[in-house]
Amino acid sequence: MKLSEVLEITGAVCVVGEQLDAIEVNHAFASDLMSDVLAMSRPDTLLITGLTTPQIIRTAQMLDLPAILVVRGKDVPQDVADLARTTGIVVLATHDIMYVTSGRLYARGLTG
Amino acid sequence: MSLEQNVEALRYLGLFTSLDASSVMSTGVHALHPEDRVAAARTLMREKSISGVPIVDANFRLVGIISVSKIIEALADGRLADSVDSVMTREVISLHAHDTFETILSCFQRFKFGRFPVVEEGGKLVGMITDTDVLSAIIRSFYSVYVHDQRRTVTIGSFSALSKEFENSADFAYDISSTGLENAGEGSARLKAFLQSKGFGESVVRRASVCAYEAEINVCIHAGGKGSLRAIARDGEIIVRVEDEGPGIENIDLAMKEGWSTATDAIRELGFGAGMGLPNIRRFSDHLVIISGKDKATKVEMIFLADKE
Question: How far is B302 from chain A (nearest CA, A)?
């Protein structure tokens, strides 16, 4: 699924990143526990999380995850956005809760 | 095996580097004063099943030692009623509380005594070390080591727990210095870039980065954010070593269990401390050695093999 489709399906906005129709994700993982995210270790995965610490960017960076979708309407702090920009990771944000967001994406074929 | 070989073997094992005389010694020491009678020394040895008694002055400073052979001599000479002072050995070979395990071992090999008094600054007696204490310390040390190995056939030939290469230099070095979790991951990000520049494959770089990151997070959560992250990357093998100065892991077996953690709620709110750090490291590394203990430095060494791809 292209990130541009993710944006459309979840009603999210793009906080950091461009050319969203050129980036593809094949899986998604929803969690606020970064160690659980690290445990799954699959590169072409969209990380769905309610955390907005620099660690979400670091976690994505270690795992080669292309994008993070921040849920529950959390503001992404400037330093986190800056880190995402430097490391080339796309950050999207939606007001929906994790469950709803995951359900919408799952229903459209982005499975775990 | 010669003394030199034994000491070299110990260094090579790297297991006993955190043991010093104060952690090996027995502390409930029975001592006598110079004015006590030889008969009292004989009674003490028999009752406590010990083969030597240290002699101390009023300030508990070590002034001599009396052994079984001295008691036998005194018995033969009919001097049991004399003072300990008249028969004790004054030139005592003692250890210092900070002496290393290698020093203790070489003392036993060189002097062939069954026991050595341990003193601190000023010569005050703080403990005794017998060969039983040394053995107990060695056994205790094994409880503070965790080894996980998927390439046993390769390592079984050598008996090294930690890689010797780090003694000289590392291909990559980063000082971990973080007050909170804010900078955690900086070192691992740099390590990742370094490994990519060395031409290692995507998968092995990812495994090494994730493990380094978990270890770096652990230093930030548990060790006050002070430590080092080093790596040696050559011949299709990545060795990553993360070290800190403590407070150490009290029970490594528990720490290896998924979901077990001593992290605070504040750390959990940041997405860590869920007890997955070390289990993750074990999952993604091909060889893992952890050496730690309560109030000890922690050394985590992980090896990643590129040809596993």
Answer: 16
- Residue B71 CA to residue B39 CA, distance in Å, equals 8
Query: Which CATH code of 3.90.1170.50, 3.40.1390.20, 3.30.1360.40, 3.40.50.1100 fits the domain covering A3-107?
Result: 3.40.1390.20
**pLDDT < 50 regions, chain B:** 151-159
Residue A54 preceded by cis peptide, ω within 30: no
- What's the pLDDT at B165? 77
pLDDT per position as a tens digit, A51-64: 999 999 999 999 99
- pLDDT of B274 reads 81
Query: In Å, how far are B13, B16, B128, B151, B160 from B138, measured between CA atoms?
Result: 12, 8, 16, 25, 16
Joined together, the tokens standing for residue B92 give 């005592």
Chain A residue nearest residue B205, CA to CA: A62
From the list A39, A51, A62, the residue facing B271 with the nearest CB is A51
What average pLDDT is seen over chain A? 94
What single letter denotes the amino acid at residue B203?
S
Alpha helices in B27-166 (DSSP H): 38-48, 68-76, 101-111, 131-143, 152-155
Task: Note the ipTM here.
Answer: 0.89
Interface of B with A (CB under 8 A): 181-185, 188-189, 192, 202, 206-207, 209-210, 213-214, 217, 270-272, 274-277, 279-280, 283-284
Q: What is the pLDDT of residues B97-116, one digit of tens each?
A: 999 888 998 899 888 888 99
Nearest to A62 among B206, B274, B283 (CB): B206
Mean pLDDT for the stretch of residues A81-100: 97
Which domains occur in chain B, in start order? 3-139 (3.10.580.10), 144-308 (3.30.565.10)
User: What's the predicted TM-score (pTM) here?
Assistant: 0.71
Mind telling me how many Å the CA of A46 is from chain B's nearest CA?
A: 16
Residue numbers in B near A59 (CB within 8 A): 185, 213, 271
